[in-house]
Amino acid sequence: MADKSADPGTLLDVDTLILDYLLYAANSTLLNVARARRSNYLSGTESRQAELLIQMVSSFLAIFRSNHPSAPISSTTSFRLSLLKFTTLFTCRFAPSSSSVSLVDLHLLRRQRRERAHHFVGHDDFLADLDLAAFSASLPLLPSSLRAHRDRLLAAFTPSNDTSPATLPDIHEGYYDAPASLSILDTLPLFMNLCAAQTALHGNNVTERWMRLAACYMASAALEQYLVHGASGLYPMLEAFAYGFDASSTAEAGSEELAVTNMFWGGEDAREVDGWREIRGEHLAALLPPEGVPLETHLSELASKELDLVPFEGEVVEFLGTLLHAQAAPVLVQLEKAGARDAGFAGRYFGQGGLGNSFG
């Protein structure tokens, strides 16, 4: 009697196609939900579909690893997995969900972030020449001010017709600024890791547009800490802006930390990429109040104008869409929708060449 069991190689190929398809679908749906929320229209169906796809990815990934314990995941599929992880945490950070980070893991993430920042300023003390006294003398803000800023932000992110199972009004009281909730600063290391993975995957270098987006991310992360989470002192700025090329880095070859520092490599003489120091300094200086202006007044104006978190999130969401479509669409998506690669999107943020040989 013939053996009718599936060929292991064929099974791996089929499972890879399914996993890649689910990752692409989950990323696309999450980004569509984020866009719908910003455009003031979000249905409960869209939110439930996104949550279901995330659960399907988690379940099928467990099956994949059980069926193929020693099979490597392709670099493209691995990137889509990292993209989904970041997109989920960034776009769903206002409400608890099945993808929320545990408080234990969150404490570990924050400790690692602070340790990393302390190491970074050992070779680049970018705060040394700044007058930051007001950030200790005038902060933290009063609880009433923190609530007002939190409520304004949540209202801006709440569609008037939001009927999703975990609507923002349902978590309006207590979650956004709770210890277990993710802040923009918490997601920043994952954002940098994701961008470094993109440069390593395609051998690209970063553009001025990307550097400005990254610096805006850092400034927004620090601003949210002061206005919503009740932070004071220099640590939010220290942890947010501690990124650049570190020629003295002792990070292990192939590590995410080394990939991030190499992303800022200028290509010769252990030099940092042109423009980054100036762009970082410009966004850091924007947080400092002009003479005679109270710090809270200045930060509040920033939050409603230059560093308004609503358009900032929109820019990040569109960037994530750029990353998703910079990869060739999964075979099943191409068969389903006749999809085609659009590598032109990636040129907005990542130029060609320059870093391809810097990742061991």
Distance between the termini: 50 Å
Q: What portion of residues belong to β-strands? A: under 5%
Helicity, as a percent range: 55-70%
Average pLDDT for all residues: 85
> What's the main sheet like?
2 strands, antiparallel
Distinct helical segment count: 14
Order of helices and strands: HHHHHHHEHHHHHHHE
Cross-sheet strand order for the largest sheet: 1-2
- Radius of gyration, CA atoms, in whole angstroms: 21 Å
Q: Which stretches of 5+ consecutive residues score pLDDT under 50?
A: 163-173, 339-345, 353-360
Q: Output the structural class.
A: mainly alpha
Total E-strand runs: 2
Approximate shape? globular
List the helices and strands and how they pair.
Elements: H1 8-38, H2 44-67, H3 75-91, H4 103-121, H5 134-137, H6 143-156, H7 184-202, E1 204-206, H8 208-227, H9 235-241, H10 256-263, H11 276-285, H12 295-304, H13 309-326, H14 331-337, E2 350-352
Antiparallel strand pairs: 1-2
Short overview:
With about 350 residues, the protein is mainly α. It contains 14 helices and 2 strands.
